[in-house]
User: Fold Fluoroquinolone transport system permease protein from Orenia metallireducens.
Amino acid sequence: MKRILTLFKNDLKNIIREIMLIYIMSGPIILATLIRYGVPILRERFIEKVDLVNYYPLITGYFILFVPILIGMVSGFLLLDERDEGVVQALVLTPLSKRGYIIYRIFMPMLISLIYILILTPFLGLVEVPVLNLIVVALLSMFESPITALFLTVFAGNKVEGLAFSKGLGLFMMAPLARLIESRWTVLARLIPFYWAVESFLVIGEKGFYFNILIGLLIHLLLLFVLLKKFEAKLI
Assistant:
């Protein structure tokens, strides 16, 4: 436990010394504030053309998706820094071990994402969500954080490339919108992990809710397993 706390303190120091990471970590709070106070204003302004109330569930679902991706970006950038500085290789030789280090890097961003989602989603004030359902969706969505972090670490050569890859993730975030159109692309969208957190949120209260959660969990675990293997290979 002491070693985990030491890692956490080091992460905080590294985040505080980089303004970009501070902004990203603050992103969920800033975004939640903009949604809470900005969306109702936009609704009043465009009420004659389109009623944004119809899109409140989608907006909330995307917020639940976006939060762990932001946290995953921070974790990914920290990993890239540690890898470039040789810190990762040094840490895996300490009593913490490679397994302990990887477990920390997976579960810490998941925990932070979970806390953010459970606190900030009700703050949005757009839709009322049963607490149990929100917890279940949050438990699925939090897997986006280690997936994002490992994706950046595995495929990016440095932080500059990592930033470019993180922007590219925006394309995959379009996957949930496939439900708005009926086409063959919907099937492909369902293979993307980002699809399932939003989709599961949108079907809360329906019979297919827990089925979506299960399928989404399996897809997340599969991708996480693949990325973990690639990440571990880089540590050798």
Q: What stands out?
A: The radius of gyration is 18 Å. The mean pLDDT is 88.
